[in-house]
Amino acid sequence: MLIARTLAELRAGCTELRATRSALALVPTMGALHNGHRALVRAAAESGATVATSIFVNPLQFGASEDLSRYPRDEAADLATLRAAGCHLAWLPDVTAMYPPDDVTTIDVAGPAAMWEGTARPGHFRGVATVCAKLFGQVRPDRAYFGEKDWQQLQVVTRMVADLHLPLEIVGVPTVRESDGLALSSRNRFLDSDQRRLAPRLYMALMTAVETLAKGEPVDDALSAARQTIEAGGLAVEYLALVDGPTLQPLQTLHRPARLVVAAQLGSVRLIDNVAA
Q: Is CB count within 10 Å lower at the N or C end of the chain?
């Protein structure tokens, strides 16, 4: 596996890899890799493409009240994970490489970015869109792979690529879960044992709501019952909604493609999840 830390090394590595296969795939990450990230790399590799994975903790997508320094980092373990998963190139830029001091351009996004995480974390999706656009320009991939666990992010990036006519395909990969349903996240490591036992209530409540909606229960009633289930476990619900899948607009009646989206606080850990409805 090639390792690039400068743009010159990245360009040389991508040129070398493109000489061996027709397609180049990118898996953007912030490190602290887990089985969800492995699934993205495997999906990219199984498509027949050469796989590049970026590891960059993006300061632009952290708000003023969010602790950037607390985000987990373990480069040695991440590189070992990528090698085992079949990655061909690891792109490890520093902040100066991604955001030179004289940079003046960011990307503002609306549409699917306007609500939910967009409201809870002002400026977050501007940071996501900007860093993804930079990564796409640096690597020039044919495809980029994102997990459905961050459903809204996936829709925001997909819409940005379409609106800006960027020459790549965005591929969503299903959420990877623990055996009890908890969606894998780098932040799960901050849950203590009691919180870890309670965290799967989020997924359980969503799946129960899916079943009741399918039986024709009114949306407000299904969401109210799900909220009660979640909060009975000690989680503080930030938002819980039935939304149109691509646009993230709230729905009052079930029609497909729809998603149930949720964010809740459990101690110091903020959990997000979603399921198809």
A: N
Tell me the per-residue pLDDT of 230-251, one tens digit each, with 9 for 90 and over.
999 899 999 999 999 999 999 9
pLDDT digits (tens, 9 = 90+) for 100-114: 999 999 999 999 999
Q: Which of 37, 124, 165, 255 is catalytic?
A: 37
Q: What residues contact 19, with CB distance under 8 A and at least 6 apart?
A: none
* Pair (268, 156) in one structural domain: no
The secondary structure of 3-45, three-state, reads EECCHHHHHHHHHHHHCCCCCEEEEEECCCCCHHHHHHHHHHH
Q: Rounded to an integer, what distance in angstroms lies between the CA atom of residue 130 and that of residue 153? A: 12
Residue ranges making up the domain that contains 239: 186-276
77 contacts: CB under 8 Å, gap ≥ 6: 33
In a domain, 181, yes or no: no
Q: Which of 173, 195, 230 is the last residue of a domain?
A: 173
Does pTM surpass 0.90?
A: yes
Instruction: Tell whether 179 is covered by a domain.
Output: no
Provide the number of structural domains found in the chain.
2
pLDDT in tens, 204-229: 999 999 999 999 999 999 999 999 99
In a domain, residue 180? The reply is no
